[in-house]
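Retry 2 of 3 after timeout on previous attempt. Resubmitting structure tokens to design endpoint.
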């Protein structure tokens, strides 16, 4: 892809645990102008994820275009049974393993060998000689935002609610931590973007903890609670956080302009903690952290949105596969798609004239790029 300034430039905005079930009503209500702009002018869809869902495994599949069975990165933990196998990376479903873990019959430890960044979108771009920048995928490279700035953003999210007047002083701790994290990533990303990398990959993780902690207050009816909770002091948190992310998206859209691509993704969504998990936690069979009401274990859909010079305006595929994100990102940067990727190019979100003018090439096992 050449000739047009900025062509082949891609900003990948990863918004952990973003969900179309939450996004679409807010867009329809006019609360998220930047998301609405992308959906109107570009492509948007639910993103089908892995089930059962482990976030790091799902993100690994998204970033590499390879499923867990092909990459070998099947789990973030390794498990041992008290009387049985000692090295399981995936527990059998439907056999009460959560209960057995709670009672001590199954022990778990982190899988230190999980290295999903190998073969990732940015590793391929670097190998091809493209300039890349990362923000939020590892240790922060910029100083954390000052406390006053974080507090101001938290107050904007809460609106008229006075955080200091809450009966529980720690009610907004998770929100403050999420805001501080994503503000720092936002600063790092915009600083990197000003240097003009061909690929900027940004990971905003705050929404995952916010929805995990405050989902009960966002959708109380799904938990069988009175509708009065909809107007409770914590009911604004999830909505306000999406508005915060909408502003960050708007800044990146403005910085990229009309020539580059912006791809917004989440490898999984979030849904209410399953009833059986709530019962198990209530009887003490499994441990659920205090205040947690959201879960992604059953693999709720994530999101896929694309804005740029070659997308189909307003196209809304019913569903996009997790494995199709990486090859599509690679193609948009003007690079050949690696044959080891199990996903494929999302042709249906791109205009026919754009596809005709930018032929697809694939790198097979012998390493020689060939037209597809």
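Retry 2 succeeded. Sequence:
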């Amino acid at each position: 892809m050449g000739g047009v300034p900025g062509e082949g430039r891609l900003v990948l905005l990863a918004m952990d645990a973003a969900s179309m079930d939450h996004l679409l009503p807010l867009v329809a209500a006019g609360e998220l102008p930047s998301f609405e702009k992308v959906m109107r002018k570009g492509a948007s869809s639910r993103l089908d994820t892995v089930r059962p869902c482990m976030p790091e495994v799902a993100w690994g599949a998204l970033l590499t275009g390879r499923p867990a069975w092909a990459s070998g990165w099947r789990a973030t933990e390794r498990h041992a049974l008290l009387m049985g196998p000692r090295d399981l990376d995936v527990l059998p479903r439907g056999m009460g393993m959560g209960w057995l873990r709670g009672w001590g019959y199954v022990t778990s430890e982190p899988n230190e060998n999980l290295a999903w960044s190998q073969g990732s979108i940015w590793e391929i771009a670097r190998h091809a000689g493209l300039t890349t920048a990362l923000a939020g995928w590892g240790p922060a490279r910029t100083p954390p935002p000052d406390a006053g700035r974080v507090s101001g953003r938290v107050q904007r999210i809460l609106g008229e609610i006075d955080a200091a007047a809450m009966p529980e002083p720690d009610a907004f701790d998770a929100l403050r931590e999420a805001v501080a994290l994503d503000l720092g990533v936002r600063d790092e990303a915009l600083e990197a973007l000003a240097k003009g990398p061909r690929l900027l990959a940004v990971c905003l993780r705050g929404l995952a903890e916010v929805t995990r902690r405050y989902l009960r207050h966002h959708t109380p009816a799904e938990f069988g609670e009175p509708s009065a909770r909809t107007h409770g002091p914590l009911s604004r948190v999830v909505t306000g956080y999406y508005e915060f992310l909408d502003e960050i998206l708007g800044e990146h859209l403005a910085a990229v302009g009309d020539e580059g691509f912006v791809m917004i993704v989440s490898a999984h969504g979030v849904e209410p903690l399953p009833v059986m998990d709530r019962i198990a936690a209530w009887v003490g069979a499994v441990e659920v952290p205090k205040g947690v009401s959201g879960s992604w274990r059953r693999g709720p859909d994530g999101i896929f949105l694309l804005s740029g010079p070659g997308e189909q305006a307003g196209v809304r595929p019913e569903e996009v596969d997790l494995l199709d994100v990486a090859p599509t990102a690679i193609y948009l940067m003007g690079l050949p798609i690696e044959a080891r990727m199990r996903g494929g190019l999302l042709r249906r979100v791109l205009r026919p004239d754009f596809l005709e003018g930018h032929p697809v090439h694939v790198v097979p096992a012998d390493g020689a790029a060939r037209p597809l």
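Attempt log closed. The longest strand covers residues 10-15.
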